[in-house]
Design goal:
alpha/beta, globular
């Protein structure tokens, strides 16, 4: 079987289920050694086992990205084993409550922004040295259409995604002329996930695509490569 990502190292956040797990499995199927991160060790172990059963390689790193020093410890552990990081997939995010902007709960807003924005900036900073040492480091961030197209009752989540997109795009622009690191923003579109079910409780899950479709798309993008500032939506 063709393994175009052989000998490459990838870190995937939010990899215990849904889109993150699908991305991890698709990358591993193409030869990458995937570091799986999420809060729940049991769910990560299940993804790791599926990767092993399919002949791939993975390492789990259970952690809460919002905890102090968690990201620094993750980066130190990865760097202690590998010199460079070929791919960082920023998938972890939380939806928060959907509601009118005047009704946004400040403590909840702080929690959403901590994971969806602050933790993402910390991940980029922590893995920046390893990405720069890679032959062609890549960062792929998962977003949502509400980050660019505001929608009623989606203000909190949309604001967090808009901020995340700005951070990632700015990072890519900063490095475009001085390194081989490239960034991409991908909107997975309507996908059968737990987050989607929370946002659209009355929706028939059978009418939206499975996470595996997004996983295959991201893996193909990682193999093909992209120019900085790349943006696309999975149909």
């Amino acid at each position: 079987m063709n393994k175009p990502l052989n000998h490459q190292i990838a870190v995937v956040t939010g990899a215990s289920r849904g889109i993150g797990a699908a991305i991890a499995e698709a990358l591993a199927a193409r030869g990458a050694h995937v570091v799986l991160t999420a809060r729940t060790a049991k769910d990560l172990e299940a993804v790791e086992q599926r990767i092993f059963d399919a002949g791939g390689a993975a390492t789990i790193a259970p952690l809460d990205l919002t905890e102090a020093d968690a990201i620094a410890k993750l980066a130190a552990a990865v760097e202690g084993r590998w010199n460079a990081l070929d791919l960082l997939v920023l998938n972890a995010a939380t939806l928060g409550s959907l509601g009118a902007v005047p009704a946004i709960d400040p403590p909840e807003m702080a929690r959403v922004l901590t994971l969806n924005v602050s933790a993402q900036a910390a991940l980029i900073a922590a893995f920046d040295p390893m990405l720069r040492r890679a032959k062609a480091g890549k960062v792929i961030g998962l977003t949502s259409s509400v980050g660019r197209n505001p929608r009623a009752y989606w203000g909190l989540y949309g604001a967090s995604k808009a901020a995340f997109e700005t951070l990632l795009a700015a990072y890519g622009d900063e490095l475009a002329a001085i390194s081989r690191v490239r960034t991409a923003i991908v909107d997975p579109g309507a996908t059968r996930t737990v987050m989607r079910a929370r946002a659209y409780p009355g929706e028939d899950p059978a009418i939206v695509k499975e996470p595996a479709v997004v996983g295959e798309h991201i893996a193909a993008l990682a193999v093909a490569g992209f120019e900085d500032g790349h943006r696309e939506r999975v149909g």
